[in-house]
């Protein structure tokens, strides 16, 4: 039986995903029985009016018995979104800008054409999402 200190237990295996104002922490942790489970923590940065900032954190726990189903559903959901909407980010702000641009131009476009053009719009700032 290993004699891990609390600090070591926290650091079994970790990965960090930085995504704009959000950061995701993936951590392998140990149960009292020394089995492993996964925590995923979302930390989101909020800026206060005075320019200082604070973070809000949400944590989910995923245990071995749920891994297979969790991966299956996550893959199904992400595949569905890419299949339905492609992998380019469609931003509400950009769509509004896009419409405005076209309302002022002389050429008429159908909604379908607008959607196609918006999908190929790649200048997206992830902080705005």
From TrEMBL:
Cited SMART domains: PUR
Protein keywords: DNA-binding
Domain of life: Bacteria
Region of interest (Disordered), ranges: 100-129
InterPro entries in the record: PUR-bd_fam
Family in the record: Belongs to the PUR DNA-binding protein family.
Protein name: PUR family DNA/RNA-binding protein
Species annotation: Hyunsoonleella rubra
């Amino acid at each position: 039986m290993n004699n891990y200190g609390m600090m070591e237990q926290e650091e079994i295996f970790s990965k960090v995903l930085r995504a704009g104002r959000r950061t995701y922490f993936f951590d392998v942790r140990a149960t009292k029985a020394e089995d492993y489970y996964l925590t995923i923590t979302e930390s989101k940065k909020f800026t206060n009016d005075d320019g200082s900032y604070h973070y809000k954190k949400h944590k989910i726990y995923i245990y071995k018995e749920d891994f297979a189903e969790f991966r299956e559903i996550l893959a199904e959901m992400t595949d569905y979104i890419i299949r339905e909407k492609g992998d380019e980010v469609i931003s509400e702000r950009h769509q509004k800008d896009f419409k405005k641009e076209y309302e002022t131009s002389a050429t008429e476009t159908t909604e379908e054409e607008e959607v196609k053009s918006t999908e190929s719009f790649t200048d997206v700032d992830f902080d705005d999402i």
